[in-house]
Amino acid sequence: MEQSPEFKAQVRLLADAGRELAERGWLPARTGHFSARLDDQHIVITAPGRGKDLLDAHDFMVVDLEGHLISGSGDPGPETFLHIIMYRHDPKLGAVLHTHSVHGTVLSRQVAGTLLLRDYEALRELPGCEHPSRGLQIPVFANHPDMQQLAAQVDAAMTRNPELAGYLINGHGLYTWGQTVELAMQRTEAFEFMFECETLARQLVV
Ligand SMILES: [Zn+2]
């Protein structure tokens, strides 16, 4: 599978995404992870603990949608399930990106339950937004020590709102996704832009 054109193409896109997101400072201390779909049963995902600025094929694992390691070095960590549930949920989903930015982390600790993003033009980059003035509710989940339980909560939120574009984990970071790596990148940038605006705006109000 590591020789397949799909694997090589997705690894190249994820490596480019990793370099860009690392340069922006959204992946401190080798955190964050990314995945992309290979076929209806397999994804490629970053192995835990790798720096994301210089990723190559050795930094990725292939896992199936049950969480089994198919190829590559590393141990599919518990957060792998937060990726897998997304692909199981939506057969058209192509990529999931997870960042640990300062603004996303600070904001996630200030709100409980949901974060309302409203009146940002960047909302137009996300599904489910009729108009920026209507806003978008983003779930903020507790950073549950049992990742399977957190995955079940995310799954329930996806079922309630199939147009959900992303979510925060308290004190942890952002998960967002799209049909392609490029689209997931665009959404990451839109979210992170709004997190930064929101954090600055709250500082001004205090
Ligand atoms: Zn994380």
Automatic annotation (TrEMBL):
GO terms for molecular function: aldehyde-lyase activity; methylthioribulose 1-phosphate dehydratase activity; zinc ion binding. Gene3D superfamilies: Class II aldolase/adducin N-terminal domain. Binds 1 zinc ion per subunit. Its cofactor is Zn(2+). Residues 12-199 form the Class II aldolase/adducin N-terminal domain. PANTHER family: 3-OXO-TETRONATE 4-PHOSPHATE DECARBOXYLASE-RELATED, FUCULOSE PHOSPHATE ALDOLASE. It comes from Thioalkalivibrio versutus. This is Methylthioribulose-1-phosphate dehydratase. It catalyses: 5-(methylsulfanyl)-D-ribulose 1-phosphate = 5-methylsulfanyl-2,3-dioxopentyl phosphate + H2O. Zn(2+) binds at H98, H100. HAMAP family: Salvage_MtnB. InterPro entries: Aldolase_class_II_sugar_metab, Aldolase_II/adducin_N, Aldolase_II/adducin_N_sf, MethylthioRu-1-P_deHdtase_MtnB. Catalyzes the dehydration of methylthioribulose-1-phosphate (MTRu-1-P) into 2,3-diketo-5-methylthiopentyl-1-phosphate (DK-MTP-1-P). It is an enzyme of class 4 (lyase). Belongs to the aldolase class II family. MtnB subfamily. SMART domains: Aldolase_II. NCBIfam families: salvage_mtnB. Keywords: Amino-acid biosynthesis, Lyase, Metal-binding, Methionine biosynthesis, Zinc. Its EC number is 4.2.1.109. GO terms for cellular component: cytosol. Pathway: Amino-acid biosynthesis; L-methionine biosynthesis via salvage pathway; L-methionine from S-methyl-5-thio-alpha-D-ribose 1-phosphate: step 2/6. The gene is mtnB.
